[in-house]
Amino acid sequence: MTKEIETIYQKIRNDIITLKIKPGSRLKEEEVSKQFKISRTPIRDVFKRLEQDNLLVIYPQSGTFVTKIRLDSINDILFFRSAVEYLVLTDLISVINPGDIIRLKTLLDNQRDLLKDDGKDNDEKFASFFFSLDNEFHSIIFDKAGKQSILTLLNDSYPYFARYRYLTFLRDEKEITSLLEIHYRIIDVLESKDLSGLKGVVLAHNYAGLTGIEKVRDRHPDYFES
């Protein structure tokens, strides 16, 4: 893809992940081509790539639609990510320094302040800010462990999981606070170099994302496959 087409792909991909384009929405080549002032042929290629990402489904003669979220596919990814994150954090324990700990704590403090200041008055605005800080938190962890390329691979290979992660920040304040506390526990393990406590906190971290998701599904049933 050319740089311009790659930019269009990334823009639509991000809009789907962050729910600016809702699950189940129909995308029309003609409308998208007009939006980006480009012919329909490259837009068709973008749609095909997003279909490979499991973010779009293309029905010949019927149209192109944003996929709905399948919770049964999330469990397998969580299992895989748990194994990867455990190994990454194991490597990180031996090299992390006090400055890194401060950076990580600052990000979590910013998320905690966001909860206090904004509450949950605007779900989508809150989720967007919180998601951005959460991405930075994980990026620092993988980068300092020398495994940034693995995080890139995970994000590129499972963009529909990123949409699920974003969705978890539409939960209520109590559940998000609980998830934030697990992140603080990860920092405590890293700071104390407690290798024995690492496995439990990694499992808690990954599976905390499932807690309360039924409530989100109840509030946004159209986002999920039945």
Structural class: mainly alpha
Low-pLDDT ranges: none
End-to-end Cα distance? 35 Å
Query: What is the count of helical runs?
Result: 11
Output the helix-strand order.
HEHHEEHHHHHHHH
**What is the averaged pLDDT score?**
90
* CATH architecture label of the largest domain: Up-down Bundle
Architecture overview:
- Strands 1-3-2 form a 3-stranded antiparallel sheet.
- The chain is globular and about 60 Å long.
- It folds into 2 domains: 64 residues, Winged helix-like DNA-binding domain superfamily/Winged helix DNA-binding domain (Arc Repressor Mutant, subunit A, Orthogonal Bundle); 153 residues, GntR ligand-binding domain-like (Four Helix Bundle (Hemerythrin (Met), subunit A)), CATH 1.20.120.
- 69% of the residues lie in helices and 4% in strands.
- With 226 residues, the chain is mainly α.
- The model has no long low-confidence stretch (mean pLDDT 90).
Give a topology summary.
Blueprint: H1 3-17, E1 26-27, H2 29-36, H3 40-52, E2 56-59, E3 63-66, H4 74-93, H5 98-118, H6 123-144, H7 148-157, H8 159-168, H9 173-192, H10 198-207, H11 213-219
Antiparallel strand pairs: 1-3, 2-3
Helix pairs in contact: 1-3, 2-3, 4-10, 5-6, 5-9, 6-7, 9-10
